[in-house]
Write a structure and sequence with these properties.
Radius of gyration: 18 Å
Largest sheet: 6 strands, parallel
Order of helices and strands: EHHEHHEHEHHEEHH
Strand order of the largest sheet: 3-4-2-1-5-6
Number of strands: 6
Oligomer: single chain
Helix content: 40-55%
Length: about 240
């Protein structure tokens, strides 16, 4: 289906909760790790399409702090996938910069080193920034920001929303315009809670391994059919055009 996307209204920043890998695998009689492997292929396809469309930031919820409670073998498989996926030439092929957010100190040493190496190797790329939220949770991030502000000895009267924003791990990019969650669940799951205050939300039943370029276009079309008011009335927004 052709959704006739308005190229002038492509979201600058898309955030995705990539849900459904495990269920995708289970329904096919496979190990959950097979679903994560299939999900990596989807990441490659969607990253390429976002670059083609002109998206500037794509943030993917890869592994939450709560995911540390999963079975050890699944965590090990996920960490292995992180390493192998970072070997992909997609970053250089599509001029994509790589960034990571989260409590990365909890990750295995080899994963930490590979993440740092990939960030350095892609620092000069400019078409799009792919941000991976790894060992991340929004409550962890906000708590960490508060600790930093307190440690700096800032007076309460001097603390503003911008102060907190600048102490978040996402301070290098704009807030998401569009948040997509696959897999049929209707919740945010501790993801970018501060940043999505005025993001448009899109939920779909499709498991992440099956999420296609057409599904992405459908989500963006839904976004483009909405009026973003940021607390203003519809008339106010119309008058500002």
């Amino acid at each position: 289906m052709n959704y006739n996307l308005d190229k002038d209204r492509i979201p600058q920043h898309i955030a995705i909760i990539m849900d459904g890998n495990g269920r995708w695998a289970t329904e096919r009689g496979k190990e959950r790790s097979a679903g994560h492997q299939a999900g990596v292929e989807t990441v490659r396809r969607i990253t390429s399409e976002c670059v083609r469309l002109g998206v500037k930031y794509l943030t993917l919820y890869t592994f939450s702090t709560e995911n540390w409670n999963r079975p050890a073998d699944e965590i090990s498989a996920l960490m292995g996938l992180v390493l192998t996926s970072l070997e992909d030439e997609i970053f250089m092929k599509h001029n994509v910069r790589f960034r990571v957010i989260g409590d990365t100190k909890r990750l295995p040493d080899d994963v930490q080193k590979k993440l740092q190496q990939t960030e350095v190797n892609t620092a000069g790329n400019s078409a799009m920034t792919l941000v991976v939220a790894l060992s991340y949770s929004s409550r962890w991030e906000i708590t960490n920001a508060v600790k930093e502000i307190v440690a700096e000895g800032m007076e309460p009267k001097d603390i503003t929303e911008e102060t907190i924003t600048q102490h978040l791990t996402t301070n290098f990019m704009p807030d998401p315009d569009l948040l997509i969650r696959t897999g049929g669940e209707l919740r945010i799951s501790n993801y970018l809670l501060w940043q999505i205050a005025y993001s448009e939300l899109y939920f779909c039943d499709t498991y992440w391994p099956d999420f296609s370029e057409e599904d992405l276009h459908k989500a963006i079309a839904s976004y483009q059919n909405r009026q973003r008011r940021f607390g203003k009335t519809e008339a106010q927004v119309e008058n500002e055009k």
